[in-house]
Specification:
- The N and C termini lie far apart (44 Å).
- This protein is 29% helix and 29% strand.
């Protein structure tokens, strides 16, 4: 348990001052869950923040481990995008989140940052109906092409 606490503190110390300096504290929320740091940013800033986390030399969150969506069916902010990042150089993990509106849900694609986001975004589109603006080939993976979201 001590190891997790030390790792969490190291990530907080590295990430939070950089984000606050770059964007100000009013543009994101930070919280901990099960020994890992998560930050929530406004949807319209997601690509900018992810690019900063990837390109900032002292952070270098260069690996997109996964992205997915959660459908919080009964909540006001129904959909939440989750991006799991890892800094190979610094051995740090970070979870970045943003809410997506329920009516005509869409968020900017991050395939320009990580080519590997391609299939993750396609799967999320297929399972949750979230459109990824700017995606180079957004089409269904599992459901029939003529499937209509309820």
């Amino acid at each position: 348990m001590k190891h997790l606490a030390e790792r969490l503190e190291r990530v907080k110390t590295a990430v939070l001052p950089k984000l606050t300096g770059q964007y100000g504290s009013e543009h994101f929320d930070a919280f901990e869950h099960r020994g890992e740091l998560s930050i929530r940013v406004p949807q319209e800033r997601i690509v900018d923040v992810l690019r900063y986390l990837r390109d900032e030399p002292s952070l270098r969150f260069d690996l997109l481990v996964d992205l997915c969506a959660v459908d919080w069916f009964r909540r006001k902010e129904r959909f939440e995008m989750i991006y799991n990042l890892w800094s190979l150089a610094n051995n740090m993990r970070l979870r970045v989140k943003c809410f997506v509106e329920e009516k005509a849900p869409s968020v900017d694609s991050i395939t320009s940052l990580w080519a590997g986001a391609d299939w993750y975004e396609r799967e999320t589109y297929d399972m949750h109906g979230i459109v990824f603006d700017g995606h180079p080939d957004l089409r269904r993976m599992y459901m029939p092409e003529d499937f209509v979201d309820p």
